[in-house]
Amino acid sequence: MEKLTVSVKEHQYNVYVGSKTYELFASEYADLINSTDKIGIIADSHVAELHLPLLKNALARTGREISVKIVPGGESCKSSDVYVDCQSFLLTEGFTRNSLLIAFGGGACGDLTGFVAATFMRGIRFIQCPTTVLAHDSAVGGKTAINMPEGKNMVGAFHQPAAVLFDTDVFKTLPASEMRSGMAELIKHAFISDAVWTEQLLVEEQFSTPSIEWLESELMQGIHVKAQIVGEDEFEHSTRKFLNFGHTFGHAVEAASGYGKLSHGECVMIGMGYAFLLSEKHGDISADFTNQYLQFAKQNGYTFEPVFSYSFDELLSYMQKDKKASFGKMNFVMLKEIGQPFVKEITTEQCREVFEEFKQKLESGGIV
Ligand SMILES: NC(=O)c1ccc[n+]([C@@H]2O[C@H](COP(=O)([O-])OP(=O)(O)OC[C@H]3O[C@@H](n4cnc5c(N)ncnc54)[C@H](O)[C@@H]3O)[C@@H](O)[C@H]2O)c1
Ligand SMILES: [Zn+2]
């Protein structure tokens, strides 16, 4: 089991990654558990079916009674209806300001539970028990949100967890597309922070089918990058924006294709290809590097087909709605070199040109 401490201004908490991390409820977190009057798990329905006994058995060792609220699996739990349902559940069960919530699922369940915890009685403590590889990104850093019909993550709050316990045994049941999704965010962390780590990942044979042992140390490295950035800029005024590398174009593809068709990380992988092309023009990324990246992505089962499914104007309308866009201008995260991100405003015309170049490159490189 590996450990890392996240330090933000008024808060510090530990992240554990490994096997049997839930046993910490009865040891390291016994005092926290004992200081609460009620404990509730909010669990993703798929995850609950597969793994709830693992978590419940570990919590049983604390001797406390636990309430469980099952929410729809995946992204559909991030709705205002499910949010209100969770709040009613807590009120009916007699939860108070001194109660504790545990999120048990992927990033979606974590975002929902975090937002429920942030707002119930003006804020109660919560612990993240993430079950996807992608959640090494989402469970750390305190961003919580639900979706609105008008857009994703449009209502939310910053609310840091009291702890993050990653039990890597649950990864065994992750579908291949979810594994790819999480690994895309992992290599994003490498791109924005470390050229040597990036080179290692780009030639890693087990990238899309990782062994748990290898994954543990890689996830720790990814969480380290995220924790450092969040520690510097908790509320996304500056460097936290770098975590959005690949996301402006990626989110547009995700929204255009209808959420859930392609996983989030698979769309980010597409978005990073676009961001590398921008980085050739505005930074010092070489065309060779972009080609190496695209080949790597293809070999690992990522698709770039959606780039051909939508017109530039369709994608543009989503890019302009991006939360990172301000006063109607589009800001992209690019790389000067690997490990050196920066943010720059790009005009619509420049975006359009790069979109056409992206399609040509994908075709001429045999990527699609
Ligand atoms: N808060 C943040 O900083 C942040 C950062 C990145 C992403 N996010 C959010 O995270 C969400 C995406 O998270 P995600 O990729 O984990 O997706 P997810 O939570 O939707 O889970 C993906 C699918 O995998 C299933 N699943 C989860 N764990 C499993 C397991 N161990 N075995 C089998 N199936 C399992 C889920 O039921 C779901 O169907 C998005 O809503 C995104 O907005 C938040
Ligand atoms: Zn992301």
UniProtKB/TrEMBL annotation:
Its EC number is 4.2.3.4. Residues 70-180 form the 3-dehydroquinate synthase N-terminal domain. InterPro entries: Dehydroquinate_synthase, DHQ_synth_AroB, DHQ_synth_fam, DHQS/DOIS_N, DHQS_C. Binds 1 divalent metal cation per subunit. Can use either Co(2+) or Zn(2+). Pathway: Metabolic intermediate biosynthesis; chorismate biosynthesis; chorismate from D-erythrose 4-phosphate and phosphoenolpyruvate: step 2/7. Transmembrane segments: none annotated. Its main location: cytoplasm. GO terms for cellular component: cytoplasm. It is found in: Cytoplasm. HAMAP family: DHQ_synthase. This is 3-dehydroquinate synthase. Zn(2+) binds at E185, H247, H264. It catalyses: 7-phospho-2-dehydro-3-deoxy-D-arabino-heptonate = 3-dehydroquinate + phosphate. NCBIfam families: aroB. It comes from Sporosarcina newyorkensis. GO terms for biological process: amino acid biosynthetic process; aromatic amino acid family biosynthetic process; chorismate biosynthetic process. The gene is aroB. Catalyzes the conversion of 3-deoxy-D-arabino-heptulosonate 7-phosphate (DAHP) to dehydroquinate (DHQ). Belongs to the sugar phosphate cyclases superfamily. Dehydroquinate synthase family.
